[in-house]
Every structure is written in C-alpha cells, then in structure tokens.
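Q: What would this chain look like folded?
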Amino acid sequence: QSFHPIPVLTLVLYSGDKLWHQPYSLIERMEIPEALKGWVNNWNGNIYDIKNIRVEWLKNPKVKAVIEGVQRIYQWDRDKESLNDLVLSKDEAIVVAIMTNSEELVIRLEKEESEEIKMCEVIDSYARERELQGMKQGMKQGIKQGELQGMMKEKISLLVRQLKQKLGHVSKELVMQIEVSPEDKLDQLTIKIFDVEDEEDVLEILS
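A: My prediction, written as structure tokens:
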C-alpha cells in the first residue's frame, strides 16, 4: 500500500510534411471483432502533429520559436514575404531545418556568421541556389540506402557539434552512444537539446 509509482508520460511529436492520418491507439491497428474490443488491452499514443500545435499555449520561448518555425516553413508557398517576420536564433534555425529534413539548409545555416537569422533571406538564397544547381540526390524520390546512411551520419554529426557548443566537451563514450541510437531517439534529442545541461541528461533522453 505504500508503493506509489510515478507515471512516465511519453509524447511523440510528428514533424513530417504531411498531416498525421495514422491511428493514435494500438487497438486501431488491429483487426479484431467488434464484440471483443472491450476485452482487449489498449494503448493510446500521445501523438501530436507539430503543424497543429497551438504555439500560444507553449511557455518555453525557445521551444515556441522552433515549433512556430516548423509550422511557418511548411506553410511557406514560395512567397518569401510570408516569412519576413520570422527571425530565429542560429541554433533555433538549425533545429527547424533538421526537423523539416532540409539537410542542405542546415549546412547553409551553419555557415552563417550572425547569431540572428532572418529566415526569409536565408530561404530565398537557398531556393535560388537549388534552382541553379538542381536538387541533390539526397532530396530526390527513391533515395538509396547508402544516401540514407549518409543523412543519418550528417544528423549525428550535427547533434555532436551542437552538444559540444552547449556543453564545451563531449566524451567519446557519449559520441558512441549517439552513433548507435535509433533515429527516433535522435529526433527526441534534437527537440530537447535546449534543455540539456550535462551528459547525463543526454543519456537519459537516449535511454
């Protein structure tokens, strides 16, 4: 009777470019008779589509900036004027680019010297460059397995560089743990990187 377990809440943030139309619960994925559904243990997933989150409800200013940035990028329809007032810190802009799978934009942002990024200017320059050079193979449909691995290595490299900037030093053991972590854990680390204070925080996110 003295045992009072502490609940653990697992939230999933979906950041894909399409709206989430998949099931939210385990039982929705099962093909079972209607009469038996009441007897089957169910699990409800706390899945939130970033594009539908109401940013005015968010209290952390950095998280709010990132979520709003992702929403604005997906709403952008090649009209740079719609992004005129979107100004992010360099770190926030890089996280937005990672979450929208804009690897080339990440590389461009990392080269920016300013710590304040006007997204309309960066994206306009980025779009014009892509029109001249064409889309790289990593952005084309039917990406090969080797290219996927390359994208994963780039994501890991970006996370390690950001952690070094934030913590000052990253141990070899932590780098190895990041390298063997699944992509969903790396995505969680990307979202929570602003709250990381030490390597223990990183390991807890990856566990």
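The chain has a mean pLDDT of 81.
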